[in-house]
Amino acid sequence: MVDVEAGRIVDVLADRDAATFAACLREHPGAEIICRNRASAYAYSSAVREAAPGAQEIADRRHLLNNLSSSVENTCHQHRSCLRKHAEAERDSEPRRIINPLPPPALPPTKIAVRTVDRCSDIHRLLRQGCSVSAIARRLHLDRKTVRRFRDTGLTICSRPPGMAAPKECWNPSPPT
User: Fold this and answer.
1) Residue 121 maps to which CATH number?
2) DSSP label of 4
3) In a domain, 99, yes or no
4) Which is more confident, 16 or 41?
């Protein structure tokens, strides 16, 4: 038994028996919401009605999602022949025209992605200025292998990926020079 609001374990039940659970609820009054597994082994409804009549019983999210995915899988399995026919008909027909295409999903930039873009930009800027790999490594406090890796990737025009602010210079691949 866990107090979610306080973030602490209240008690550990010795078994799954409803009488044990009812006794535990009586020892720890004040339960308002009881989240439980819906399996018949956890037949606590009678215990809740008896020991905490004002509490609301809810099913936990994990088991609800598990039940939903099982139901979807079973339904797909039962209708696989008609789903296959539909998929074959779609494949043989003319492709649908997309009226309003969705933009590609853009993830929010992470610190490491921003740092990588900035590092790439700095390395290629210094390479264009004629600096050597060793000089760039010293100036940017990087290992020479890191500088060579950025140099050899072929990422010479570096722009930020979708979702990153203000283009700088480091993601559009172009052939190595």
Assistant:
1) 1.10.10
2) T
3) no
4) 16
Q: Which residue, among 139, 130, 170, has the nearest Cα to 154 in the 3D structure?
A: 170
For residues 18 and 45, what is the distance between their CA atoms, to the nearest angstrom? Answer: 8
How far is it, in rounded angstroms, from Cα 171 to Cα 23? 63
Encode pLDDT of 70-113 as tens digits: 999 999 889 888 888 888 877 777 777 778 888 877 778 888 88
Nearest alpha carbon to residue 36 among 69, 68, 13? 13
Please indicate, yes or no, whether residues 139 and 166 belong to a single structural domain of this protein.
yes
- Kindly state the tokens that stand for 137: 């490594």
Where does a domain end: 71, 92, 113? 92
CA dist., res. 128 & res. 142, Å (int): 18
Instruction: Identify the domain containing residue 109 by its residue range.
Output: 104-177
CA-CA distance, 68 to 88, in Å (whole number)?
A: 27
Which of 156, 167, 172, 159 lies closest to 123, judged by CA? 156
Dihedral angle computed from the Cα positions of residues 154, 162, 122 and 138, in that order, rounded to the nearest 10 degrees? -80
pTM > 0.90: yes or no: no
Q: Which of 14, 23, 22, 65 is nearest to 43 (CA)?
A: 22
Q: What is the pLDDT of residues 130-156, one digit of tens each?
A: 999 999 999 999 999 999 998 887 655
